[in-house]
Amino acid sequence: MKEYHVNSIGTKEQIPNEKSSLKFFEKANCLTDFCSPWNNDSLSKIEFRALSDHENFYFNFRVFDTDIYLDQKDDSFDSIGNSDRVELFFRTNENLNPYYCLEIDTSGRIMDFKAYPNKDFDFDWKWPEKELKVETSRDQTSFIVSGSISLQSLKDLNLIENNTIEAGVFRAKFSLVQNLQYEPTWISWINPNTETPNFHIASSFGKFKLV
């Protein structure tokens, strides 16, 4: 199973206030080995970084793509699900019983839900209030999605064991094909080795090691 080492940023007094900035993530390892096994087109570069302190897990996606599609008909999960976004999944065990999904579009809208095997989704479930924060931004070459998740919420959901979090890291890229129709390209840190795109499977997860 692939591993990503989440570096510690030390004591609270050493932590910069601007937690979404690239400067904040200077000490983080940069994960770039993403793939789309079901699509032969070239992919925009994705940089994922994560850090932790004694209270929070911090994450940062930087996607080098300015051709962004955002479905703005409303703020429903359907609208988020039809938009360019990044995703983090966390599982309690290899049986995916349960696992938790965070899907965040480029405007900062969050689709958070609890899931069980065979894509049994509980969309009424929400990440514990005030335990998740998200920010987004754009520049001339990329968009950024950053956030923090309290370690306490991860522990309460049984998602940390021996300083390890089992997680999936994904992106959905929507492109115009014809007649104003957009179709997604599914991008993953781990190749799940499935014939068709599927992130909701045990083989799509790796390990975050808190170091």
Mean pLDDT: 93
Tally of distinct domains: 1
Structural class by secondary-structure content: mainly beta
CATH-derived topology: Immunoglobulin-like
Q: What does the main sheet amount to?
A: 12 strands, mixed
Helix content: under 10%
Contiguous runs where pLDDT drops below 50 for at least 5 residues: none
Radius of gyration (CA) equals 16 Å
CATH class: Mainly Beta
Number of strands: 12
CATH architecture: Sandwich
Shape descriptor: globular
What is the terminal separation in angstroms?
17 Å
User: H/E element string?
Assistant: EEEHEEEEEEHEEE
Q: How many helical elements? A: 2
Residues in β-strands, percent? 35-45%
Organism: Flavobacterium chilense
GO molecular function, one term: carbohydrate binding
Protein name: Carbohydrate family 9 binding domain-like
Domain Carbohydrate-binding: 42-211
